[in-house]
Every structure is written in structure tokens, then in C-alpha cells.
Amino acid sequence: MMHRRHTAAFKQEDVMRQNIRVLAITSALTGAVVALFPLSGSLVAQEERSVHPAAKSYDGAASAEHITVTGANAINATGVTGRDIGGGLMRRQTAAKSVSEVGRDFIAKQSPTASAFQLLRLTPGANAGASDPFNMQYGGGSFSVRGLDSSQIGFMFEGMPLNSTYNNSVDPSEWADTENLQSIRLAQGSPDLTSPTVNASGGVVDMTMRDPSRKFGIVADATGGTYSMARGFMRMDLGEIGHTGITGFWSISQSEADHWRGTGHDSKTHFDTGFLKRWAGGSQAKLAISFGDAHIYNYNYPTQAQFLSHTSSYNYSNVFTGLNTNYYKLHANPQDSLLVSAPTHWVLSRNLSLDFTPYTYYFFGTTGFGTVLNESAIYTGTERLQLDLNNNGKIGGSQLAYMPYIEETSRSGFSTSLRYHVPHNDFVLGQWFQYENDNLFSQYGRVGANGAPLNAWGDRDYYVTSGGSPIYAMASHSYVVSNEIYFGDILHFFDNRLRIDLGFREAMIARMGINSLPGTQYRTNLNTSEPLPTVGLSWTFNSHHQVFVSGNTAFRTPPANAIFQSAYGGRITSQGNTNLKPEYSISEEVGYRYTSDRFMASVTFFNYNFTNRLLSTAVYQNGFQYSSVINGGGQHAQGVDVEIGTGPIAHFRPYISGEFLHAKEDNNLAVGNNFLPTAGKTAVRSPKFQIGFGLDYDDGHIFGNASVKWVDKQYSTLMNDQTIPSYVQANFTAGYRFNDWGFVKHPEIRLNVINAANNRYMSGAYSIQSNARAVRGLNGSMIAASGTPTYYIGTPFMALTTVTAGF
């Protein structure tokens, strides 16, 4: 029965996979055709400097102006201007809500291995806990904004959503190399009306890739540093292709590094490419592609006790002895990813425009663990098997096996919006549609005499039943259809000084889950629909002063793995729950901005209320690491964000940001027939104070950048009985930029130092818990500890040297 049932599921899976591949290919070809086929008119004349306003992101105003600088306007080969406010940590914003943005002047001076999380760490409310400094580990460490973690933040790359609808997770190691990122924009409080996401109850991050240059050129850099870190990068701008008006670039990078604690070696190969076509009148089409191939070994994340009792070398074991499941080679994590997006903007008439973004995403990766199998009791679901695994002619011994958590994900979709402008009104009507297919499975893999799996990917060299079928420890399939329609209006009065934003979204999510393990519920469904109104108002006194107020709603669906039954040891250990309510948030902001060419400042007061607060964590069971969810009930918060930056003052550009956050849980947490007294406790991952400081110096030749981030203590349990102490991390950059050497343009040498003071600290919660110690519940009886939180560890002192030049 198990074999027939599983085969039937995979036949259906094969059909679904073929459909997804068709959608993926269709989206990619659509993007390519749109990018390469002329609409009408001639190419907009552009030479050294390309300045174009971004399409309006229906958030109360146009997005900040995106500027690509090349040739004489740049003072280095990667786009640094030396003029951006705060050293590239602030850009002009006009939306009726809180928005922060970092640009090339900051990005280009950081370590080329920095992740998007780390590049945002100085912005108000952002709390980034690194897992490794080389941006190769899956997940990129912890990231939260105003106490809300990355699963509650929508991440976008060139208009395509990056969050998995299966568990809302993201992986910064998949995204474009830092040399190709033009800007990263963080909206701290809420998504834009047109944002293609349903999990952004905590805000949205938008990443924009640089535009190709209209002239042929090559940029290359090489980096070497601590822990045998070595990285090479090369980008070739193709210039204008023929006389088509199409420009393009492609790039490749290769990274290698040893683990900074314990044993392990990681490597990553990454490709980016982009094409752009513009027409007179403002129409444009773009094609952006990122592909990554990584082969890494996971870190072991310690408890607080393990962190305090071990040295910085704490990790998986580097010694293999017989049945040692803790051997580091059993914790492999190979993965491939492909991102394709084709954002287009068509000006149909003087008053009418259309934005259309088809996209596709594919991922195949494995998270490995070690386990010991009892030959007389091997379970797949609730079915017990007896097999001679070690081929010694008898059944009853133990055998070390590799347990790969294999995930194959594909999703394709499009977002489209029609905009109509008349005096005093900007109307928008749009839709976002996406289909995602997640296939998660695991079969027991064979291990060699040296303790390493015969195949780290886990899709071959595995044990089979007497009938020749794989022995599945997991076999679940999730199909998710996301559909969102929206409409809105921006009203303009008093010569555009008063703007009123009104919008409404209706989000609809349909899920089907199939669990092919014997004895488990085979099929389950979960459908969700939420109305999401939004309103904003801004008053611009003059070119310098603006005030705004906004009110927004957002929601997030529970992770799809919550609807599946779990089995361990031949019995059902947890029931799938299709009655979980989605997380729902209502947020309000009131803010003020001052903007000039020399000085910028903003202050935002915010309030949010959550019902059915979903908290993401990690759970280990039978060797597997699952993304799981804890229902934290209601939560509310109030706070204030501040940021200030200046233009060059004697070549110095300072920046400072800060946040005060008062986040509290509203409800006691039900545990069986009892309740944990969590009401009134401080919310997890919610430091009360954060302060960021940046100071940039650049005289055209000598340059430097220093940054300091102080994060107050934060809790890792709902009962506040375990704490991440406050910490400080300081990074700095120093370098020299030479004059051109013949055909070598803007050569420079740069030193990046990470954690300059070599502080040892826990940088974030890897997994949270309800209570780390036994607690007396509200009915008088004791409630046992739910488990012990585990933590990301801040990286120690590191130095990296980079040599960069253009050709």
C-alpha cells in the first residue's frame, strides 16, 4: 500500500512539476521578448549618466529616484559618487510612511561578502544577527524590524517576491552580488499597495540591480582574508548591442572560506545578468537573472549554556568515530537557485500606463543530518520495516545513515497594475498571481567509511526496501495559489502639497497538501482570504519639510508545514492543523522629514497591534530541523525611529539612527489545559533600544567608513526567562583610490574589518521557545520547560582586503 500510494503521489508530482517548468519557461521567455522587442519610438538618449524615476510604487508618492552613475560621474569603478547623504545610508523619500534606503556609496565600501541583512543593519529598527560573514550559510542569520522577524517581512528583487509561501523563509545567499546592487529599500511598517506579497505584516525590503552601462567595460575585484577567505568577481558591460538600444551585462563570482568556528569549508559560485531597453516617452523593459550554486556545511547553533562553556570553536565534530551523528560532513547543505524577473513599464498614453512583471524561481537544496538506524525497527510514517542495511546477513544491528532534508521549490507568477492619471487623482487597478510547488522529502542515505555521505544532495545512494523503493522519512508536497487584487487612488490638492492615499487589497491563498508517508493523513486543504484596507496622508510645506500619517493592515498565513501530520518512531507525533488563523496586523505611523541637498532627517512614531501573532522558530525531531511556528496570541508595540545624515562636510558624511521600541504580549499562552502567564511580557526579538552610527570619509583618493551598532538586550522566550545580552559591533573600512593607469580605470585597494573590537556575543535567536524553565501555570500546576533556545553567534575579528579596477 505504501509503495502504490507514494508512486501515485509522485506521478501527480511529476505532472505538477512539468506544469511549473512550463510556467517558468513561459515567464522567462515573456521577459526576454518584452526586454528585447521594441514597443515603439526611439531610444531615450542617454550617455554617461542615466537618471530615471522609478515606477510609482503606490505608497503615497513615487519611489526614491534611482540613479545609475558611470564614467566621469563616478569616482570608482563600482559607482561611488562621494556625494550621497550619510555616506549612502539615506536617500530622498516622499512616501506617506516610514522608508529607509541604502545606496551604492555605502554598499560599495562594505565587504563584498556582506548580505542584504548586514547592509541594512544600521537603518532604524533593523536588527541583523549574522550566521557567517561570507553570506554563504542558508538563511543569512536573523533579521528583524521593530521586533518582527524576516518571515514577517516581504523581500523583493526587481519586483519579484522572494519569500517562500510554504514557510515564509528567505535566503540572502541566493540574491545578486553586492557589486550589482544599486539600492536596498526598507519600508519598516507595511507593504505598498502594489507589493506582491502576503506575509509582509512587518514591512517590505526592495532590492534593485544596477542598470547596464551604455559603454563596453569590465570591472573585476579580488578579495582575500581571514579564515582562508578568497573571492573573485568580474562583470562585463556589453554596451549597446548593435543598434537595438538594448544594453546588458553579465557577471560571475566565486567564493571560498573555512568556517570561522569549528571545522568546515564553504564555496559558492554566482552569476548575475541584466538587460535593459528604454524608449522615448518613458517606457522601459528589463530582464534580471541571478543563479547560484553553493556547497556548504551547516553550523551548529549553541544554547546559551553551550555558548558560555565553549570556546569560539564550538561546532559539529571534526572526528568521525563509528556511529558519530555529530560529524560535520553529515551536515552538508548543497543548493542551487535561479531567479528570473522581467519588470516592464509601458506608457500607453499621456494619462495611462501599465506595469507588468512576470517572474520565475527555482530552488533545489539539501540540509543534511546524521542518524542511527535500528535494522529491526526502521520506520516510514507508521509503517515498521526490518532490513539488513549493513549486508552482514542478519537483522538487528545499528547502521549510521545520512538524513537529507531535501527541498525542491518552483514558483512562477506575475504582477500587473494599470494606472490612470487625471487632475487631482492617480488611480491604480492591479493583480498579483503566483503558483508555488514545494516538494519536501527525505530518504536514508548511505555513508562511506570516512563518515561522509556518498551523495550530499541525498537524491541517490540511499537505502531501499526489499521491493527496491526508497525508505522515506518525509514525503510531503504543498501546492499554493496566491491571488491578490487591489485598487486605489492618490488624491492631490493645493498644488500637490496635500496627498491622500486610499487603497484596498483582497488577498486569497489556496493550499493543498499531500503527505505520502504511510499512516498519515494523505490530503489536506487550507483556504484563506483577507480584506486589507490602507490609508495615508502627507503634507509637503515646501521642498524641505514634510509630515505624514498612515494606517495600514497586513496579514501572514501560517507556514504550510503546519497543516501536515508528523510521524516519529512509528506513531503520529503531531496533528496537522487546518484551523490556524492567519496573523493580522493594524499599524499606524506619524512622521516628519527634512530634506535638502546637504542634510536629511526623519522621525517616525509608530504603533502596531497583532492578533494571532505567529512566531517562527526551528524544531529538531529525529535528526530533522523543521521550520515551525508558535502562536503567540496578541501583541502590541509603540516606538519611535530616527535617522539623520549629512552631505560632505570637509569630505566627512556622518549618519546616525536610533529606535525606541516598547513591544508587549497581550495574551497568556495556552499549554494543554493550563496557561503560561505571558500577558504583559516583552515580545521576543524586540530590543528596547538600538543605535546605529556611520561615518564616511572620501576625498576622491583616500576613503574610509566606520560603523557601530549597539543593540539592547532582547528575549528569546515568551516568558522572558532567557536573554540575549546587549552587544556592540564595530566595522570599519580604509582604502586608497589611484588615478587611472592607462586602460586600467579607478584602481583601488580596500581593507574591511569586521567586529574590530573582537567582541564575543550572541547576535540573535536561532530558535525561540515558550519557556526555558518550568513555570507555575495560572491554574496552579507546573508547566515543564518547552525547550532551550539556540543562538546565532557574532563573528569574531576579521580582516579582508579587496583590490578593484575597471577596464
Write up what this structure looks like:
The longest helix has 35 residues. By secondary structure, the protein is mainly beta. The N terminus is likely disordered. The protein has two domains: 609 residues, Maltoporin, Chain A; 156 residues, Ferric Hydroxamate Uptake Protein, Chain A, domain 1 (Beta Complex). It is built from four helices and 47 strands.
Short description:
The chain is mostly beta strands.
Task: Name the descriptors.
mainly beta, globular, 4 helices, 23-stranded antiparallel beta sheet, Maltoporin, Chain A, 807 residues, Ferric Hydroxamate Uptake Protein, Chain A, domain 1, disordered N terminus
| Total number of distinct structural domains | 2
C-alpha termini separation: 64 Å
What is the overall number of helices?
4
CATH architecture grouping of the largest domain: Beta Barrel
Integer-rounded radius of gyration:
26 Å
Amount of helix: under 10%
Counting helices, strands and paired strands, the structural category is mainly beta
CATH fold topology of the largest domain: Maltoporin, Chain A
Number of strands: 47
Q: Strand count, sense and closure of the main sheet?
A: 23 strands, antiparallel
Mean pLDDT: 86
Gross morphology: globular
Give start-end ranges of low-pLDDT stretches.
Answer: 1-72, 622-626
| Superfamily (CATH H level) name of the largest domain | TonB-dependent receptor, beta-barrel domain
Could you tell me the strand content as a percent range? over 45%
Top-tier CATH class of the largest domain? Mainly Beta
